[in-house]
Structure formats: C-alpha cells, structure tokens
TrEMBL record:
<keyword id="KW-0325">Glycoprotein</keyword>
<feature type="domain" description="Ig-like">
    <location>
        <begin position="126"/>
        <end position="235"/>
    </location>
</feature>
<feature type="domain" description="Ig-like">
    <location>
        <begin position="14"/>
        <end position="118"/>
    </location>
</feature>
<keyword id="KW-0393">Immunoglobulin domain</keyword>
<dbReference type="InterPro" id="IPR036179">
    <property type="entry name" value="Ig-like_dom_sf"/>
</dbReference>
<dbReference type="InterPro" id="IPR013783">
    <property type="entry name" value="Ig-like_fold"/>
</dbReference>
<dbReference type="InterPro" id="IPR013106">
    <property type="entry name" value="Ig_V-set"/>
</dbReference>
<dbReference type="InterPro" id="IPR051755">
    <property type="entry name" value="Ig-like_CS_Receptor"/>
</dbReference>
<dbReference type="Pfam" id="PF07686">
    <property type="entry name" value="V-set"/>
</dbReference>
<keyword id="KW-1015">Disulfide bond</keyword>
<feature type="signal peptide">
    <location>
        <begin position="1"/>
        <end position="29"/>
    </location>
</feature>
<keyword id="KW-0732">Signal</keyword>
<dbReference type="InterPro" id="IPR007110">
    <property type="entry name" value="Ig-like_dom"/>
</dbReference>
<protein>
    <submittedName>
        <fullName>Signal-regulatory protein delta-like isoform X1</fullName>
    </submittedName>
</protein>
<dbReference type="InterPro" id="IPR003599">
    <property type="entry name" value="Ig_sub"/>
</dbReference>
Length: 286
C-alpha cells in the first residue's frame, strides 16, 4: 500500500481506509470510472469465484483495493501491492496500461457471502479521493445440511457390552469461533461426555485433529461400553464469549448397549443359576 504523508487535509492511508470502510457510495467527482460488470454472482461451495473490475485507462496514480461488506462487517480482501492474501489471486498482471483489476477467490465457502467492492484511490494534495465500483453481491449455493449444520452421520448404533463405539461429528468451518463438546442427553441435566479443550475422560478419545486450523472432524471413540452408556449423544458447537453460548447442536445419535448371551442381567443372578441347575438336573434324570 502506498504511503501518504500525514497532514491536516490529507489523513494517513490507514485512517482513510477506515473511512472508506464506513461509507461506500459508488460515486465520485473524478472523471474516471471503476466498472464491476456483474451486479451479482452465484457459485457453489468449493468452487472458484471470479470478480470482474476495470478501471479507466487514464486514471491518476493510486492503489486499487477490494473490500467485502456483509452486514456490519467490512474486510479488506485484496491489495494489488504484492501482499499475500490466501485464496485470492489477480486475474491479469500486466505492468503497463493496467486496467483489469479482476480477482479470483478459490475454495469458496458460505463465509464468503457478501457484497464485494473494487475501489480506486487517487493520491493528490491536499486531498485523497476515491471511486468505488457499484459492488457485486456474491451468494454461495450448496446443500444446506452439508454447509450450515452440525452433522452426525449415524442416527442409531447398537453395540455389545465391553465393545468400542465411534460417534462421528462434522462441524462447518464457516461457523463462528468457539469450542465443540459432546453430551449425553439434553437439557439442564445433560452429561458432558467429552471436551476437546480440557477435562479428563478416560474412556473417550478424539479421532480428528481439533487443534489443526480448518479442522471440521470432531468425532470421538468411547471404549468399554456398558448398559449404563445407553442414551442419545449430541455433538454441540458453542460460540466463543463470556461465557460461551450454545450455537448449534447435531441431531443426536441413539446408542443401544446390549448384553451378550453369556452375561447375566443385573438383579437376577440367583434366578439364572437356579434355572441352569434345574436344566442340568432334568438332563441327568433323562
């Protein structure tokens, strides 16, 4: 980004950018234009998004920037000064008579939804002016249950006592920052089964890599199951705060733990032994 000396009538560029982020009018008194050919673009999650922008050939010196606006959130998307912006590249890169300032954004996700503005700054004294394109609204299409919901692949699972069970959970990386926890049951009396950040859970192990950036796998494995483990297990995403608040829960996985054929039901061991003895006695009599 080009440096502009500070003065009373010409604020430093960072201060000006804050002002630009507050107001995008799309108009200016300058005689050159910034053209964004598409008023809206729709792409599918995972695809590459191309945003067009052309600036008049005879335009004064000054940088071109891309911003994204989504509600009250405004973010610098790309600067053509050589800075690194992951997933964003320049479509054309000609050194002379540069007029094409189109960009490509790879691996699009729902977090990329918003209106994108191509903005031309003009450096002059005593004022710094700008011209903004009219904006391109970007929508991201995809299967709703894949990109907007906590996923638990299995609705029900049945295992035997002593076995190990795997409970799958996928959390979209487009969700706000915050922890993921596993619970058995729901409501105020639900039991915490696993916390990926803290706590001691001797029978539970995580499968994915929850500390790895971009991780979406929060599956767990529970060992040495007993009938007491029967119930509904929920993978729950929380939103970071003071305190953290529940953002979204998975649909739940019903777990049934059954006894094997050679196991005795609790509360009736004597009856079972007496039956076995009676059976042997009858066989001997025969």
């Amino acid at each position: 980004m080009m440096h502009v000396p500070a003065s009373r009538s010409c604020p430093p560029l960072p201060s000006l950018l804050l002002t630009l982020l507050v107001r995008f009018t799309g108009t200016s008194d300058e005689d050159f234009q910034v053209t964004q050919p598409e008023s809206s673009v729709s792409v599918r999650a995972g695809e590459i998004l191309t945003l067009g922008c052309n600036v008049s050939a005879r335009s004064p010196a000054g940088p071109v920037l891309w911003f994204r606006e989504n509600g009250q959130e405004r973010q610098l998307i790309y600067n053509f000064n050589g800075s690194q912006f992951p997933r964003v590249t320049q479509v054309e890169n000609t050194e002379f008579n540069q007029t094409d300032y189109s960009i490509r954004i790879s691996d699009v996700s729902p977090k990329d939804v918003g209106t994108y503005y191509c903005v031309k700054l003009t450096i002059a004294h005593p004022d710094m002016a700008y011209v903004s394109g009219s904006g391109t609204f970007v929508s991201v299409n995809g299967t709703t249950h894949e990109i907007f919901q906590v996923q638990q692949a299995e609705m029900t699972q049945t295992v035997s006592t002593g076995e190990t069970i795997t409970l799958s959970c996928s959390v979209p990386d487009s969700f706000p920052k915050g922890p993921v926890l596993w619970f058995k049951g729901h409501g105020p009396n639900r039991e915490i089964i696993y916390n990926f950040k803290e706590g001691f859970f001797p029978r539970v192990k995580e499968i994915g890599h929850p500390t790895k950036p971009g991780n979406t796998d929060f599956s767990i494995r529970i060992s040495e199951l007993s009938p007491a483990d029967t119930g509904i297990y929920y993978c729950v995403k929380f939103k970071e705060g003071k305190p953290d608040t529940e953002f979204q829960s998975g649909p739940g996985t019903k777990v049934f733990v059954t006894r094997t054929s050679n196991q005795v039901a609790p509360g009736a061991p004597e009856r079972h032994l007496m039956t076995m003895r009676g059976t042997k006695l009858r066989k001997n009599l025969l």
